[in-house]
């Protein structure tokens, strides 16, 4: 939980980051590949984190992230800063792509037919979903507790803080290669702990 004392500087940093991303996005809209590469590095961890939460499979989440960021590249000129932040826009595209993937996967499996309940569609149970979400959150928290200090810091700063691996390395005073290695081992450990791997 963040303290209220850090609210001002945190808000200022978020505003500066958003301005920086908007600049990269504007340049990307003109076909500037270097700007888009920098933009990609900055937003990919947030997009991947969201996709992973929704599709639950590391490889599928990576595919969704790639597709979502290709969509961003193609529609960069359509970003409207009055409707929200750059990361929020990227995450909305990622969310849409993730949901599309889940829908197509589910229809391909024909779950209703295999279960013998073709044509039956259950109403959403908001209470059950809320309980499942709380249970998922608790499992993630428990699994995060199994990580080493550096793994935990790297994961939380990259996925919850939206930092690039390079920024995480700078914050932690660690080598980029070390952070990447710890991220790989942390994600593998979390995947095993959560039972979401292939």
Descriptive report:
With 198 residues, this protein is an all-alpha fold. Helices cover 76% and strands 0% of the residues. The longest helix has 24 residues, at 86-109. Residues 1-6 and 117-124 have low confidence and may be disordered.
Strand and helix layout:
Elements: H1 7-29, H2 33-55, H3 58-74, H4 86-109, H5 111-115, H6 126-144, H7 149-160, H8 165-172, H9 176-194
Strand content: under 5%
The radius of gyration is 19 Å
Question: What is the helix tally?
Answer: 9
Coarse shape: globular
Helix content: over 70%
Q: What's the β-strand tally?
A: 0
What letter string, H or E per element, gives the SSE order? HHHHHHHHH
The secondary structure category is: mainly alpha
Catalogue the unreliable spans: 1-6, 117-124
> How widely separated are the two ends?
33 Å
Q: The biggest beta sheet, please? A: none
Mean pLDDT: 77
List keywords for this structure.
198 residues, mainly alpha, 9 helices, 76% helix, 0% strand, disordered N terminus
Short recap of the structure:
Helices cover 76% and strands 0% of the residues. The chain has nine helices and no strands.
């Amino acid at each position: 939980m963040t303290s209220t004392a850090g609210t001002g500087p945190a808000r200022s940093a978020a505003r500066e980051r958003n301005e920086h991303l908007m600049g990269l996005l504007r340049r990307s809209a003109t076909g500037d590949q270097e700007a888009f590469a920098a933009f990609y590095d900055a937003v990919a961890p947030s997009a991947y984190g969201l996709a992973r939460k929704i599709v639950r499979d590391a490889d599928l989440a990576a595919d969704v992230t790639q597709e979502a960021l290709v969509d961003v590249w193609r529609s960069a000129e359509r970003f409207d800063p009055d409707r929200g932040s750059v990361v929020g826009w990227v995450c909305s595209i990622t969310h849409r792509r993730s949901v599309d993937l889940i829908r197509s996967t589910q229809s391909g499996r024909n779950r209703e037919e295999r279960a013998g309940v073709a044509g039956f569609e259950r109403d959403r149970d908001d209470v059950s979903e809320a309980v499942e979400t709380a249970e998922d959150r608790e499992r993630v928290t428990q699994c995060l507790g199994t990580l080493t200090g550096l793994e935990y810091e790297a994961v939380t700063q990259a996925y919850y803080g939206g930092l690039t691996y390079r920024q995480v390395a700078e914050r932690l005073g660690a080598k980029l290669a070390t952070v990447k290695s710890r991220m790989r081992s942390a994600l593998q450990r979390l995947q095993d702990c959560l039972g979401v791997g292939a």
